[in-house]
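Here is the promised in-class demo. Please do not try to memorize the tokens; focus on the logic of going from shape to residues.
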């Protein structure tokens, strides 16, 4: 199974004090232990570094990004992805970019912002907690 992680799930995992931290860590841990492949958009990495730098020391942040680089599949954007996002009715342009990348290479999307994904994709969309529950029930 190929699981696309939204930027906010990774932010929950690496920034202290965010809601959903443990669920995000549990999803990532399962992926890191080869229960499934984790996909992430290249743009998400830039957004994570930009946003997390206020809360995470640079050395620790670069170590985490190195783990993503080595262990996850990083999906790139092309001109067709940008065109799709421009034409999408999704209210968040970044989420529209993530949807198009996810649809090309993933089986499910895991996000904390389902309302920006569910109406705009044919892929199943879960919160980290929902995804963990589905895995326990073997329904994913």
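The designed amino acids, position by position:
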């Amino acid at each position: 199974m190929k699981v696309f992680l939204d930027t906010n799930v990774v932010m929950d995992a690496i920034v202290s004090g965010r809601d959903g931290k443990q669920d995000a860590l549990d999803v990532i841990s399962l992926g890191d232990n080869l229960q499934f492949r984790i996909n992430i958009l290249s743009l998400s990495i830039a957004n994570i570094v930009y946003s997390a730098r206020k809360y995470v020391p640079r050395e620790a942040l670069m170590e985490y990004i190195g783990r993503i680089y080595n262990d996850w599949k990083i999906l790139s954007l092309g001109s067709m992805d940008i065109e799709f996002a421009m034409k999408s009715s999704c209210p968040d342009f970044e989420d529209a970019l993530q949807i198009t990348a996810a649809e090309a290479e993933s089986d499910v999307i895991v996000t904390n912002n389902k309302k920006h994904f569910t109406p705009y994709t044919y892929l199943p969309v879960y919160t980290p907690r929902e995804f963990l529950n589905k895995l326990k029930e073997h329904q994913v």
